[in-house]
Structure formats: C-alpha cells, structure tokens
Amino acid sequence: MAEGVALQTVLQQLLVGLSRTTILFIVASGMSLVLGVLRIPNLAHGSFYMIGAFLAYSISAAIGSTMGFWTAVLAAPIGVALLSFAIERGLFRHLYDREHLMLLLFTFSFTLVFSDLVKLIWGSDYRSMPVPEMFQGSIQVMGLTLPLYNAFLLAVGPVVAVGLWLLTQKTKIGKIARAAAVDREMVDAIGINVQMVYSVVFVIGCFLAGLGGALVAPTQNITQGMDHGIIMETFLIVIVGGLGNIWGALTGALVFGLSHAVGIMVVPQFAIVIPYLAVVVILLFRPRGLLKSIW
Q1: Please, are residues 24 and 240 in contact by the beta-carbon 8 Å criterion?
Q2: Cα–Cα distances in Å, from 211 out to 82, 176, 285, 287?
Q3: Phi/psi at 138 (nearest 5 deg)?
Q4: Which tens digit of pLDDT belongs to each residue from 122-167?
Q5: pLDDT, tens digit, for every residue of 90-116?
Q6: Which H helix or E strand runs over 138?
Q7: Alpha carbons 275 and 262: distance in angstroms, whole number
C-alpha cells in the first residue's frame, strides 16, 4: 500500500511538472523562432514575458470574472506583439547585420528599460491574478488528482506545438522564414521582402513570450524581476534542444520541467539546481543539443 501511495505521489508530481513544461515551451519556442531566423540572442525576451503577465493582471482585474481571464489571455499577448512590432520596426531592423555582441548588449539594455517601465506603471509590489472560477478545483487523471488549471495548461501545450508546426511547415510565411534561416541573402536576391519576414517572426516570438506570461500569471506572484529567471531557463532550453529547432524547444522544456519535478521529490532543498545539472550532463555528451540545430 505504501509503495502504491508513493508511486501515485511521484506520478502526480510529474503531471504538475508537465504543466510547468507548457509555460517553458511556449516561451522557449518564441525564443527559438527568433534565434533560428533572425539570429538575434534576444535577452529582452524575458521582459516581454514579464510585461505579458502584468498586462494580463491589469486586464483581468479591470474586467473580473472568467471573462476577464479569457480576455487577458487573448489581449495581453497581442499587446506585447504590438509593442514588439514597434521596437522591431523602429530599432531592431537597423541592427541585423551587426555583431552578436552588439545585439546582446542592445537587447540587454531593453531589459533595463522594461524593468523601469514596469516599476513606473505597476510599482514594485507583488501582484497576483486569481485562477478563474471555471478552473478552480481539481480533476482525476488516471486516478491522480490534478488541479484544473494545470490540466488546462497541459492541453494548451500540444495546441501551441501543433500550431507552430503548421505555421512553419505549411504556410508561405513559414517556408520563407525557414529559407531565410538557411540563406537570407538568396531569399533577398529573389525579391522577397526579408525585412518584413523578420518583423513577422520577431512579433510571433514576442507574442509567444507574452502568452507564456499571461498563462503563468494565475500560478505565481507577478513581480518586477520575474524576467530574470525565465530568460536563463529559456536560453538553456533552446541550447539543449538545438538552436532554432521548435521540437528541440519542446524537448528541452520537458527535460527542464520534469527534472525540476523530480528534484522536488528527491532533494527539495536543492530542486532548483537539478535542471541545471541535467543541462550540464546533456551538453557534455551532446554539445550541439539533443536535436539538430538550425544554425
């Protein structure tokens, strides 16, 4: 009986870890798109995630009820996308041919700007967004108890993954973006507006960061500085999965989320370290990532 209870606890913790993997994958897939096509190591990606969470909080608080949640999940990423479009058109598009170090410094400067912007608008206090009524409580999954909101996140992950696959593999803009990732000069030479393709890809990547922020808002405190942790995790996930590879982002997110869940069960006081140890072990044997890198 004790072994059965222990196994049930392990499986339940892994399910919760999978729901966290959804957030990591959504944010990392946006980063992977931008890295794969634009070749920009965007350190401000975590800031878009943070802004998405704060926008979701404000929208949800203003409208209230379940409708406020759905409006926030839809409107917050769109707001982030509009902000990213203005930044890309006004600034980023002039820097695509610069060295990576300059791009790193440039995007890092935006993390400082966004941090002050968030503090100016929302202050430095913690904010919290309640779980909507329709997702309160729990359900039984194969005899395991899982919070409804975590189950919702588990359902969102595959939808986003399939949507990104369809976008990159079955649409004209996706095929052009993949071609630009391999040989941007040739794509430009045949008369395709590469700058506009870059804008679309950058906006989609930031939209996904904002979506991740909106979805994570009901599960944790929303605060200035929440971008720091996510950007480090996102970069590691993208590196482990393979630079620019969407399915690699999913694989890396699974490694990160499940290893953290295992760490909570085995060594809870050091759980935060376990995913990073897993990354180190993987990169020792697969320095270019688990799946093929686009770069």
Answers
A1: no
A2: 13, 24, 33, 30
A3: -145, 165
A4: 988 888 898 888 888 888 766 677 788 888 998 898 899 888 888 8
A5: 888 777 777 777 888 888 888 999 999
A6: strand 138-141
A7: 9
